[in-house]
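@channel anyone free to eyeball this complex?
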Amino acid sequence: MSELIYSVFDPEVQPPVLYPDYASTILRAPTKPLMVLKKSLVELSGPVFGDILLRPLDNDLTKNAIRNGEPIGERIVVHGTVRDEWGSPIPQALIEIWQANACGRYVHKVDQHNAPLDPNFLGAGRCLTDAQGNYKFYTIKPGAYPWGNHHNAWRPNHIHFSLFGANITSRLVTQMYFPGDPLLQYDPIFLSVPPAGRELLLSTFVLGLTEPSFALGYRFDIVLRGAQATPFETK
Amino acid sequence: MNKLRQTPSQTLGPYFAYSLSPEQYGYPFNSIMNQQMVNPFTEKDAITIVGKVYDGAGEVIPDALVEIWQNDGEKQLIGRCGTGTDIEHRFVFYTLKPSVYDGQAPFLTVILLMRGQLIHSYTRMYFSDELELNQQDPFLNTIPVDRLSTLIAQKNDLGYTFDIHMQGQNETVFIEI
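replying in thread with the prediction:
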């Protein structure tokens, strides 16, 4: 027989909603306890993106916004596998990414950082995981940039990830960081994650994924929360 | 088998629009979901949902991203709208009202993401003109009476209005999903 198993956000690895060192949480974090919902068929379903129109360069940020040349910066390739908490790969998960350019400047109109835009780099990409849950992005290693959270605050290099998995309980928005970044120890957004979870946000450099004379290889595996029907043995 | 550890959540940040909602914000990238969950010009039963997101100081939040999921067994629809392009920082969706499904009053699942949220929030939007079904709904009946109105969109001339309050006296009921 089977039983529906679901899990909540795991407080041992997930950040709290309110983390005052990240000042923007103070007026934006809900203050009342969440109401617990008996899951219905609505939450145990989610959008299926199998038939969306993906274009060939959507997962190649080094090429998908070229106007008059190659984007500036260090080319990287990011590989990963998306799994559920029971280790099963999640095929056809939608991954959307965005990031700053090599100078630490976002294309977004609101970004006022005094660093150059790159006319050949947008910093947006997307893909679907394959049948084994694997994904791959080519991009430029993002630069660090200053922000107004506190005096001399700089965000470590990071790539934003948005994922839709098997159903809407597995929705995840996160950030991938780079190993050895000296800014991580000062970043309240990274430090909002309890110590047990922090290394899960670090990509690893992998020589075997590095493409000779082209791009440095990194791995960033992702585990999505969520419900699934799992075989359940009863005695 | 040992469960794998969940990848921790991190904030959406302020600069998501050129990837997640590029057409709405005028960036040169295509959108794969938007505020038109159905086409309001061709779908005669289309409804409009309009709302604002407020922070704990009562200010309208101009950089939130709202996603709507609905599934009534017949139709599954996903929508996405940022609050950064409307002059009043409203979100606007065009969709269909779902029917009763799985023994529940019609509702939409709302996913709310923004800078200042380390984990996104979930809530539900019910419809003020489904009074009888709402009164019998098993989930709504677990909500304290004085907070119930935060989950119910009010029907008016424009369609339905559904404001979301992150904090304060009218703090929206957020849901563990």
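from a first look: Chain B touches chain A through 70 residues (CB under 8 Å).
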